[in-house]
Here is the input.
Amino acid sequence: MSDTDSFIEEVTEEVRREQLYGYLRRYGWIAVVLVVGIVGSAAYLEWQKARSTAAAQALGDSVLSALENDDANSRLAALGAVTSDNVNSAAVVSILTAREAEGAGGTVAAIAALQSVASNEALPLEYAHLAALKSLMLQHETLSAEDRRIGYQALATPGAPYRMLAQEQLALIAVELGDIADAIVQLESIRLDAETSEGLRARATQLIVAMGEVPADVNEIPIASGN
Here is the structure.
């Protein structure tokens, strides 16, 4: 390489270096801001995560402490003092409160608590439908069969989380109204559905038999054991 070529290369490198320093002086703050932003965001997310975890643990401790009371009224009062900013957690507390209110004889209060959950559109279907199902069951003696039927039909649509339990209630309403044929159709549908639990399938089979029918593919009647 000649001295001229070497000199040109050195000058070129120096120009590139000066250009790089110029870019850094002009735009380097952007990189600094980006780094600070990334680090700050990560720290904030970790703080939020730790805060959420601590809040969930505190809520769980409060609920468990409330449920440890031996007296139903004491459990109800303790649950009433439990609050949460999380909509899902608040729904769980309301459902538990409804259960304790029912146990303490406060059916009206239990229904009100359940309906507040059932009507909350911000909740996942699992929470809202569970509350609606339980609310309808508590209103067995106060709602007409037709009103209950409409309510359960809304919960028995395809894809609904508790559709099999709602369909079981529809079968029972059919029995209540003396429509045995419709009840058997509902129960057979439950019995043959792949999503039906063993306990519910056993109950459906037993109800069919109790109404004087025997499913063709059933050799012995299973014993129901829960849902």
About this structure: The two ends are 89 Å apart (CA to CA). The chain has a mean pLDDT of 79.
